[in-house]
Every structure is written in C-alpha cells, then in structure tokens.
Write a structure and sequence with these properties.
The chain has about 750 residues and is an alpha+beta fold. It folds into 4 domains: about 70 residues, no CATH class; about 200 residues, no CATH class; about 240 residues, no CATH class; about 130 residues, Tetratricopeptide repeat domain (Serine Threonine Protein Phosphatase 5, Tetratricopeptide repeat), CATH 1.25.40. It has 27 helices and 22 strands. The strands form 2 sheets. The protein has a 20-stranded antiparallel beta sheet, with helices on both faces. The longest helix is centred in the last third of the chain and has 25 residues. The chain is flat, with a radius of gyration of 34 Å. It starts with a helix and ends with a helix.
Length: about 750
Amino acid sequence: MRQVVRCAVLVVTALTFAPAGAETDQAAFYRAYYLEHAEHRHAEAEEIYAEIARSADGALRTAARARRDSMREERLGSDLARLMPPNALAYVELNQPGNQAERLLRQLGLLADEGQQRDAGELAISPALVRAVAGLKGIAGAITGIDPANETVAGVLVLHPGDLELVRGLLETALPVAADPVDEIDGYTTYNIEGEVFVTLTHRLVIVSPQQHEIAGVIERLGDADAESLANSPHMQPLLARRQGGLVYFAVNFEPVMPLLEAAMAGGAAASEEIAVINALLDPRSLRSLTGEAGVADDGLFLDVTLELADSHRNLVFNFLQLPPLDATTLERIPRGAAGFFAAALNPRTVGSPLPPDSDAPLPISGMDIGREIFGNIVGLAAFVLPPGPGPQATIDGEPIPDAAVIITVNDPARSQALWTTVLGLASMAANDGRADSGAVTIDGVRAYRYNLDELDLYLATTGTDLIVSPSRYAIGRALATRDGRDSLAGDPGFAAVLDQIGSDTTIAAGLHPGRCLEVAEPFMSDHDMEEVAPVRAMLTDTVAGLAVTHGRDTFRLVARVTGLPDVGGLVSQLIAEERGHRHRATPRRSYRSDRRERPERPERIAAPRERGEPDPWSALTRAARAGADAEDLKRLAGRLADEMDDANELNNRAWALLTEDYGAAAVSAAWVLARRSNELSGYDNWAYLDTLALAEYRSGNLEEAVTLQRKALERADSDRSRRTVRESLKKFEQALRKEERARN
C-alpha cells in the first residue's frame, strides 16, 4: 500500500511540473509503475515501459527495459503451458492456489469481506492474509524424456511467485550460499545444485531443470509468444482446452511415449510370459491421453479425469469393463428425498416378456437362467436409502435397519420374477430349518412376496419391468409411488446439481446428501449425540456430493462434485467462543439458528419410557413429514416433542430445520409449535428464537404477527450480523403485509 501511495504522489507531482502538452519519461515511468502494482494492468504498463526504453537514456532506460521484460514475462507466464516444450510427454500445473483458497473460504463462510468490521469473537479470515500467504501464481512442470537405464528424467519446472515475493527473496538469498554459480543462460543468473539441477532466475520466474537447454528453451519462448510450445502442440492443445481453471491439472500424452514403451514391452515380452500377456490384454499402443483436474468451482469442489484410447484399440480389459448407458427408468424408480443412491447399467434395453397373471405358481427356470439374468436380462441396478419413515423400522437382532432398497430393471420381468422368487424361497427354507416362511402381501396396492431370513423379513415387489427388493415396506412403497413420475429423484431439488452431471451416455451415477444421511443415522444415536449433531445437520441442507462415470467405446471419464458447501463460519466462531469461555451468539445466514445464552437451571423433565424400537418424538415427526402427513398430525407430534423437551435452544434448532429443509408445507404447523415453546422457555427475549417464530407465522399466513415478532427480534439482536439478518426478513414480511392490506382494500 505504501508503494501504491508513493507512486500516486510521484505521478501527480511529475504531471504537475511537466511541460504543457507533454509527459516526461520520468512521469510516464511512474504512471506505468502505478498501473503495474496498483491496478495490475500489465499489458498497458508493458507498452509504456517499451516506449520509455526507446526514448530515454541512462538509468531510466535500463530500469524501463527491466520492467518491460518483467511485464512480458508476467503476460506470457499467465499460461505456463506456453512456456513448456512442445514435445512434453506429461504436464502438470498448480494454478493460482491463493485464488482457489479464497474461493473455498468464501463458500465456507470463513472469509471476511474487504474492509468488513467483524464482531468480537467472530472468525473471518482476511482476504489480504490469503493473498499474502498464498499469492503464488502458479507452478508448472513438464517431462520431456525418460532414461530407464540411467534412471534419469528430462524436463523442466517453472515457478511463477506472483505477488509472493517472499519465495523469490528466499531463493535469491539461499542460492548463492547453497549452490554454485555457473554461466548465465541468455543473460540470466544461473546456479547449479550439487551437479544435478540448474536454477535460473529471470525477472519474474524461477526455472529449474537438470538440462540447461530446457531452461534456454523456456527463456526463448518467453521472448517469442508465437514460438512452438506445449500450448500450441497438435497433440496437447485439445487436452489443454479442457482446463476449467482448477487448482491442479495434469495431462499425459501417450503418443510420444509409445516408441519407448513398445521397445521396452517387446524386449520384456521375449523374456517374460507375464509381460506378453499384459501386452495382449492392455494393448498399450492404443493409449492416447490421460487428463485430470481438481479444484474449487463457483458452486463447490470438483474432480474430472478422462482416459482416451485409439478408435481401433484392442484393450480387452477396457472393453470387458465397459457398460451401456443408464436406462432412464432405472433412475426414475429412485424416490424423491433419498439420502443417497447408486445406479449402474448392465445391459441394453430390449423387448421382453410381460409379467404373468397373478399366480402362486412361478414359471419354471433352469440353471442357465442365473447367468442370463446377470449377463443379459438385467438392464440396470439402483440402490437407495431414505431417512426413516413413519412407523417402526425393520430390525435385525433388535437393531433398526435403514429404509433402503435395491431396484432391478430387467428386460424379461416374468423370467426375473420366477428366478428371484425361487432363490429367495430357497434362502427362506435354509434359514428356517427346511420350512419355507414366505407368503404374498400387498404394498400400496401391488402384490409382493415376503420371505423370512432368520431375523429378517425381505420383500420382493414387481411392477412393470422393475423388481424391488428390500427389508423395508416403507422403502418399497416409496419406490412404487414413483410410477406416476411425480415422486421420483427427478423432482428432488436436493439432487438437482447431481442430476445435471448425468448425461445420455452416463453408465454409473451416485449421489449423497450428508444432511439426510444424518437423519438415517438418528435411530443409532443417543439423545446426546443427536443434540451435538443438530447444528451440523442444519448446515448441510444444500450440501450434495455426486459422481458420474462415462465409459464409451474409446473414452472413460469420471466426474465428481461436491456442491452447496456448508457455511460453517458461525459455528466455528461459536465453538471458538465457547472454548474460550465467552458468551457468544452467532447466527449464520444458512440453517444453523443456535443462540446458546446462559439461562437458569431448570429441573429436567423425565420423558415417559418408550418401547424398544419405538422412534423418539423427533424421528416420528420427521418421518411423518417426509411421508406427507397432514398438518394436524404433525402438530400433534410436535406437541409431544415440546412436552418432552426442556431445551429452548434445541427446540429452536429443530423448528428452524422444519422450516428450511424439505419437509413440506404441512411441517410449518409443527415448526410453529416448537418455536412457540422455545420462546416460552426463554421469555420471548432471544432474538434468534423470535426470528424463527416470526418465520413460522409468516409461512402460516399470519403476517401481522410475523411483523410484530420480527420487530421484537430486531430490538434484541446484539450484533451487526444478526441485525442485518433480521432486517432482511423484516423487510420481506412488511412488504407481504402491505400487499395483503392493499388487496383487502
């Protein structure tokens, strides 16, 4: 900052005393320096420095030339691939780690805004600190040759310190001490470290290589933007075009490697049968490229890896693992609200036999049907797990089992039903000492079969071309409900980002919703564990992880993403404050609405004992909401929870979760009950609890009460952040109230 101010003063001074209608070289130099350091307009600064280098003389001319060359390096170094040799076998780059870290911290709610005044105890990392610590612009390396006999590698590494002058300063200090100076390379100081590696310092870059000619090549490309380089190489240019600006990118071009690899494989095959077999299985000559990238996108984290082979390849392993594209119906049977799912295709869709009429006599099957089922009949497999539904869960040895199911999409449902009923019937007989314990049942109007496997009941339902297998009648019912296309994964906003990754050629897909997964885990948690997890779960409302795999004739691609990263800033600040023993109330802009203020001790309310396996009131409430229970039923369950719980903070958290997560409009009534109880316990004196109750009133259509409560919350809000949050909601409530009043009049 001092440099910027000094430059500005010098520019103004120089322009003030310069002859009218002209700008002195000295003033132009200061103006270029200001453009370079204050506004980072390097191309404009380079032009001015170049003009001064032509017109000035003496020390100013020397300084202008140095700055001109530095700006040229800055411009060309913005894409380090332009400095790499065109014959590179492999390339890797680390791209602007400071920007990537800043983007990640911002999404996590841990980065302060420029000039933001932070509340006491609030953790907000300064952007200036991120830039100072991670101002490195980039590192790139290329391998140009491998000598297995001498165990040496040819290549070059380029470091662009960017604004992190500390790195360059350390090198300039350490190299004269730890290395030997050698002849300059194109006028730049060069050192040799232990006779193995050369290091050259240019105006902006640090170039490292075991070979001096590789360093000379980089410097030559610095002076000629049109020189042949990796960036315009016919083999690598298409691969580099895939870069998405991530943190790490790598590319391996197998074509230049093939002569070396073929020679090694041929020599090895003559002496080793194993190498000959590997050569035949993998067809290494068909390998073309391998690329990958990982980093921070605008909506989260991503990983993208692609392997390409020649069109006419004979890679038996690649072909053996190839799968067809996912059939649309495989994903359509996964219900909305799933906590996680996995889907894979096995065979193409063909026309099969229809289901037989309802009969207890299955079609005859043969041993060959087992092989045909796997390798020809099954179109796709899908598995999913749901948050607990209404009613008791299935158990095994007294422990609850998650509501999960496997969906098998087939070409010939009649043959599949016959096969699976036979297999499960035999398994039931084996589990019950030769006595079959099975029978027909009805689930949501569809005939299904129950098979007892010792401590577990397993159900099989068939509809259309789908077989659904699960120990949970609730999970089967939810899968059956997707038949009309309304309650399926396609309409789940939580997985919208994952579904966007799935294309017509995707062969494997998976998705995970961490917030819902915590709901799945609730039956296995103690009350204390649930209380500890509640704030984390509330922050994971929008967090989703997804995976999509494409395996075509000559391409394999894996894309993974994590979107909707949780805003953890408020929670981290609170944990820090609690660790320090200070009173702190933090309410992030997302779902976490905790305000742990000190309150007088109250006698613990002892809940009525529940039978083993009976869900606790919160689990029963969330299951009923997920299942679409009406408002009165949910309100009754919420009243039960409010009677059993004496923790205003926890009641507020759960009310907020009902209002902000995907529980449906009917859950507003239950949230109102919990929010009102939390305010009764706190004497209507806690701004966060008032804010939650106001939102419940707003969602219920009681706009006047919502405005009144929100104004009380604003009076009690005790930090800039909380006041901003409350004001935004109050403005929305007041606008809705005015609109309603105009409509009445």
